[in-house]
Design a protein that fits this description.
By secondary structure, the protein is mainly beta. It is built from four helices and 68 strands.
């Protein structure tokens, strides 16, 4: 025996180790197309495990941490799941609003963040499919979403399986697993007071919703073990039944008053919906009984098959206690206090006007409800004849109308439909209503007498609305005027870092509605300029087609106002306050490395180095590897024939995004590229700038960058009255020049000789009179005319 016991222990240990190793660290396992996870199996700071007999397993998790409405990643619960059968699974959780707000209780304390690191993670409503923001896929949900997380909410206060995302447009959640393996289901705290009881992933082709939601199903643990038996004997509800018809009347709730006059004095019974195997009833009051039911349906007075046995309840107060029982023992008892009365309500006035409907008498189509204070605009109704029809209760036999105002009439209608000006069946007679104020009184009559009159005051106008202002600035776009490439939207409060734009000259272009014919720009700050652009594209410093003129912006604060105009007049101005800084990150000996990835196989191709070449730009992605141990986010900027920006909060830091290492596909057009990666100590480019790395590379055959055929001036900004103009080609002879201010007013003209084969010296006598700002110098030579923006500080 002394030998057998250690061998037995060793055998069991080896079995346990083998089961764990097969799980590869997973806690839960998909079994036959379903995964069931008790929320409280995993705990972390910010989540509190609480006991509750109405929760599966007898307990649940409550989020007690701080609200995190905009930033997921707080108090993360990680549920590791082993998927054996690849495919698409629907995700649901049993949740509850644990804190009842004074206002809008159905929409407060009702959500948490969810992220599933699956091959595809999305939400669906009919044919509409959405993806979490930050996943690299669109469209995205209404409301909050970030970093690949969905905000998942319920609008049901009590425990329910309501699991939706996208505000005011509910979509249900799905995850697709392309291969067997271990995946993470992540839950992050969002709203304090949101409770979660159980999480389920299931294949809809294998299970109905009710099967997946059944609380009698045990957790699917990956080690194959079944959790120790918990007290799953719960009374879910007590239903009141008409025992004559075996039809449910409603839920027996605490404080319920049962009116026998309304139930028809039928015999009643109570049926318990429970997870237990038997129910013990104890009823006290004018009727007292004690009974144990061992078979479903668990009925207070018993049953014959599904034919319920009932009793006629005398008037009085009752207490009913129902105690469930399972193999684990007695469950939590539920006690309900209710009362029985027999009160026949006094006869009600059956002569009622339910509503007054306004109709187009030409088409006999309802326009809407005639309500108190309504303003009827004839211009919007095309001046059609109108009538009013009274909708009444069943007992009404006639309606007396009394209309006063620019039209006055008194009419009694003795048959439905009751129309103000009469009718022929449903062909209503109408009238053209002159402009003015009206009062209409409709008085119903039934066999019991005259009912309650309804009086409505309304008015009629004939006001053609003024043309709407279609003169809109839809956005202001910031451009690198060297490359004519958009850098992003110029938004209020934007901080432009010259260190990140490589000190390139910048331009601003206004995107407008189609009707806009001109845009006036007013820029104030270290550079001040007022300029009216009369043709699209509307560029702050002017343009030649889509070749935008730009300026070097000194460091400081700026205000830009863009005012659109159309043939109808001036539209709504848009004012943007922004600033320019030059925060070059501190030098570091550490640098990013960049890896070229095959997005079809998710396998690395090679390391992408400065000056390198990518022979084929199809089906690729680029991963940045940060050298900084405290990196929380990486900002990636690709400039070239294909441009891309991305903020990645989770490794791998992929330029075109990924889902748990499954890289999104991109195509890079042939040409030259610059790629910059910047590391930050906080999420979403917050915290400290840890350092950045920039590399240049080419795709396909190395392409020589074709220079624009243009002239340029130096020094610019100007230091004194002399400026040198470099022409694009060698020339000889004399050139003419003219200098204009931003408003197009000519300041100075003159001629000068070429001092070299392609260089002109221009000495402007008006320099001392020029105020700081941007001016435009036009040089005309034998080979062309060139306009150059000049900056005077």
């Amino acid at each position: 025996m002394k030998l057998i016991i250690p061998l037995l222990v060793l055998s069991l240990s080896l079995f346990s180790f083998d089961a764990y190793s097969q799980c590869n660290g997973a806690i839960f396992e998909e079994q036959n197309g379903i995964v069931i996870m008790e929320a409280e199996t995993i705990t972390t700071s910010g989540w509190t495990k609480r006991s509750d007999g109405s929760a599966s397993g007898g307990s649940y998790l409550a989020y007690t941490g701080s609200d995190s409405f905009n930033t997921p990643g707080v108090s993360i619960l990680t549920y590791k799941v082993k998927i054996n059968s690849p495919g698409t699974y629907r995700f649901i959780w049993r949740n509850k609003i644990g804190i009842i707000a004074n206002t809008a209780p159905n929409t407060e304390h009702n959500d948490s963040w969810l992220k599933i690191n699956a091959s595809d993670f999305y939400a669906q409503s009919g044919s509409s499919r959405i993806y979490p923001s930050g996943s690299g896929k669109t469209p995205n949900p209404n409301g909050a979403s970030s970093g690949g997380w969905f905000k998942v909410y319920t609008n049901t206060i009590d425990w329910s399986w309501s699991t939706s995302t996208s505000d005011n447009d509910p979509h249900v959640i799905y995850a697709t697993f392309n291969s067997a393996g271990v995946y993470d289901v992540l839950v992050s705290g969002r709203s304090n007071g949101h409770w979660i009881d159980r999480l389920v992933l299931y294949k809809e082709g294998s299970y109905t919703a009710s099967q997946a939601q059944s609380l009698s199903r045990a957790e699917t643990r990956c080690d194959g073990s079944v959790p120790p038996p918990t007290n799953t004997a719960v009374i879910n509800s007590l239903q009141l039944f008409n025992a004559d018809s075996d039809v449910a009347i409603g839920t027996l709730s605490n404080g319920l008053v049962i009116n026998l006059a309304q139930t028809g004095n039928v015999p009643l019974t109570v049926v318990a919906n429970t997870t237990g195997s038997s129910v013990q009833f104890q009823l006290s009051g004018p009727i007292s009984t004690s009974r144990t039911e061992d078979l479903a349906p668990f009925a207070l007075f018993g049953d014959i098959g599904i034919d319920l046995i009932g009793r006629t309840f005398p008037i009085g107060s009752y207490t009913l206690t129902a105690t469930p029982k399972s193999s684990a023992g007695l469950g939590t008892a539920v006690t309900i206090n209710f009362s029985v009365i027999n009160s026949t309500p006094p006869p009600t006035d059956s002569a009622l006007i339910n509503s007054l409907q306004l109709f187009n008498a030409d088409t006999d189509v309802a326009i809407g409800t005639l309500s108190n204070g309504l303003v009827i605009n004839l211009a919007q109704l095309n001046n059609v004849p109108l009538t009013v029809v009274a909708n009444t209760s069943t007992g009404v036999s006639s309606v007396q109308f009394q209309l006063s105002g620019p039209i006055s009439t008194s009419r009694n209608e003795g048959a439905a439909p009751y129309a103000l000006f009469g009718n022929s069946g449903t062909d209503y007679f109408g009238s053209l209503f002159p402009v003015g104020s009206y009062t209409l009184t409709a008085t119903p009559t039934s066999s019991a007498g005259t009912g309650t009159a309804v009086t409505v005051n309304f008015s009629v106008t004939n006001s053609t609305p003024p043309p709407t202002d279609s003169t809109l600035i839809t956005s202001l776009q910031l451009f690198n005027s060297d490359t004519d490439t958009s850098i992003g939207t110029l938004s209020n409060g934007l901080v432009i870092n010259l260190a990140q734009t490589n000190d390139a000259p910048l331009a601003v272009v206004a995107n407008t509605s189609d009707s806009v014919s001109s845009v006036r720009f007013q820029l104030s700050g270290p550079i001040s300029i007022s300029r009216n652009e009369g043709a699209a594209p509307f560029a702050l410093f002017g343009n030649s087609g889509t070749d935008y003129f730009g300026s070097l912006f000194p460091v400081g604060s700026y205000t830009l106002t863009a005012t659109p105009s159309t043939s109808a007049g001036t539209g709504t101005a848009v004012t943007i306050n922004f600033s320019v800084v030059d925060n070059t990150p501190p030098p570091t000996s550490e640098s990013f490395s960049f890896v070229l990835v095959n997005s079809e196989t998710d396998q690395d191709i090679s390391t992408l180095t400065n000056g390198g070449n990518v022979s084929n730009g199809s089906n690729i992605n680029i991963r940045a590897v940060s050298p900084f141990g405290n990196t929380a986010s990486v900002y990636l900027v690709l400039q070239g024939p294909t441009s891309q920006t991305a903020t990645e909060n989770v490794a791998p830091y992929a330029l075109f995004g990924d889902i748990g290492g499954n890289y999104n596909t991109a195509f890079l057009a042939n040409g030259s590229y610059t790629l910059t990666a910047t590391a930050y100590s906080g999420n979403n480019r917050s915290g400290t700038n840890l350092g950045s790395t920039t590399i240049n590379f080419t795709v396909g055959a190395t392409l020589a960058k074709s220079a624009k055929v243009e002239a340029f001036a130096y020094p610019n900004p100007m230091k004194d009255s002399k400026v040198f103009i470099k022409l694009p080609e060698k020339e000889y002879g004399t050139v003419n020049y003219s200098l204009k201010n931003p408003s197009g007013v000519e300041i100075e003209t003159g001629k000068t000789k070429l001092t070299d084969e392609d260089k002109v010296d221009v000495n402007m006598s008006s320099f001392d009179r020029m105020a700081p700002g941007i001016y435009y110098l036009t040089v005309q030579s034998l080979n062309g005319t060139f306009t150059i923006p000049l900056i005077k500080k």
